[in-house]
Every structure is written in structure tokens, then in C-alpha cells.
Specification:
The protein is an all-alpha fold and about 150 residues long. The protein has 3 helices and no strands. The chain starts with 9 loop residues before the first helix and ends with a helix.
Length: about 150
Amino acid sequence: MDLLPVTQDYDAISEKMREFAATRYMEIIGSLSGYVAQALNDPDGIHDIEPGRLQAHVALVKLQTSLIKELGLLYRVQDRPQQEEAEEMIPASEVAALLAEAQAREDRAVAVAAEAATAVALAAVEHRQVVDLDAARERVARGLRALGR
């Protein structure tokens, strides 16, 4: 028997095959249910049945139980449930502390940015005043030169 490589679709194929087999098992179990019920609920009682018929009834019951067992194995009902890797949990008190710390960092960053913006604005105002003073000085000097002529 050749081993086939496991493809990327293995999980999807496995699930489809599990569903297919489960459907077929359920159909067989359903079709046997009437016969098993008849064998177990025979009004004549077990003592009036011929040995061959009794063996057939027992075989039917065994077949049904083995199919139910196979169905359970198909879905791995006897396996211990796998523990899903849970995400790391953080207590609420630590979350509150982390949020407070983040808020403090943001407040400090806003304060630094505000100071920088204030410094830039003051420098622009100072520069504007110097430019205005230079322009005024130039106008006064022109006016004095005009008066001196």
C-alpha cells in the first residue's frame, strides 16, 4: 500500500469523509432498528425461537452495537478533548493599571507637543515683531532722510 502525502486540504477532506461515513452508519443503524426492536420485543419470547433465528437476532444486535461503536470512534468520542491553547489572560486590575500608564504617557506626549508648539508660535511672533520693528525703523529712517533733504 502506497502512502499518500498529506495535502493542505487534509482537514477538509477528513471532515467530509467523517460526515459521509457517519451518514452511511446512521442509515445502516436506522435500517436495522426495526429488526433489532422486533428481535428484542418478540411477543413469543426467546424460548420459542429456533436456534438459527436466535443467532440471527443476536448477530443483528451485535452488528448494530458495533456500528454505533464505529460511529463513536469515527468522531473520537472516547478521546480526551484537546485543550485549546487559551490566550494569556490579564487580570482586570492589571488592565486598569496598563490603561492608566498609557493615558499618562499620552498626557506627557501631548504636554511636550504643546510646549513645542508654543515655543514655535512664540518664535514666530518674536520673528514677526523683529521684522515689524525693522520695517518701522526703515520707514522712520526714510522719513528722516526725506525731511533732511
